[in-house]
Amino acid sequence: MDHPLKTHHRLLLTGAAGGLGTALRERLKGNCEVLRLSDKAGLGEAQAGEEIVLADLSNADEVNAMVAGVDAIVHMGGISVGQVMRTIAPFYGALGVCLLLVTYVPAFSLWLPGLVK
Predict the structure, then answer these.
(1) What is the pLDDT of residues 29-71, one digit of tens each?
(2) Which fold has domain 8-75?
(3) Are 19 and 82 in contact (CB under 8 A)?
(4) Distances in Å between the alpha carbon of 91 and those of 84, 85, 94, 99, 103?
(5) How far apart are CA 90 and CA 73, in angstroms?
(6) Closest by alpha carbon to 78, among 25, 14, 13?
(7) pLDDT score, position 41
(8) What phi-psi label fits residue 71: left (phi over 0), alpha (psi between -120 and 50 degrees) or beta?
(9) Is the CB of residue 72 less than 8 Å from the CB of residue 8?
(10) Are 81 and 18 in contact (CB under 8 A)?
């Protein structure tokens, strides 16, 4: 069935495997003849009216191939907060331990000689 709002021949949705991309997948089909879905994660099989292009947004050659021939882009690709937190959490944990040591060890070392007489 043709949708009266089909304004694009080929529409690209980046981040299609993520939460927003998954939510938009069916909704955007009404705006185009072909919905090109892209993510670096697997997207399964293309449905009718879909194309799948696996691409990493940090790779310029893959991005150039991904955007070739599209009329518009809905950009939802990126790094999720969960991934960022898993990456930086060890650093901040180690920093916290260092701050505790710097703060309390000198005070403890000044207090300790008073215990031993």
Answers:
(1) 988 999 999 999 888 899 999 999 999 988 899 999 999 999 9
(2) Rossmann fold (3.40.50)
(3) no
(4) 12, 10, 5, 12, 18
(5) 36
(6) 14
(7) 84
(8) alpha
(9) yes
(10) no
- Per the CB < 8 A criterion, the answer to whether 80 and 67 are in contact is no
Helices (H) and strands (E) in the chain, counts: 3, 4
The amino acid sitting at 40 is K
Reading the block at residue 32, the tokens are: 């185009």
Q: How many residues does the chain have?
A: 117
Torsion of CA 33, 71, 51, 82, to 10 degrees: -120
Q: How many CA atoms lie within 13 A of 95 on its CB side?
A: 5
Output the CA torsion sign for 3, 5, 9, 13. negative
Pairing status of strand 72-75 against strand 32-39: unpaired
CA–CA distance, 6 with 46 (Å, rounded to integer): 19
Query: Distance (Å, rounded) from C-alpha 59 to C-alpha 51?
Result: 20
d(CA 89, CA 97): 12
Query: Rounded distance, CA 20 to CA 37, Å?
Result: 12
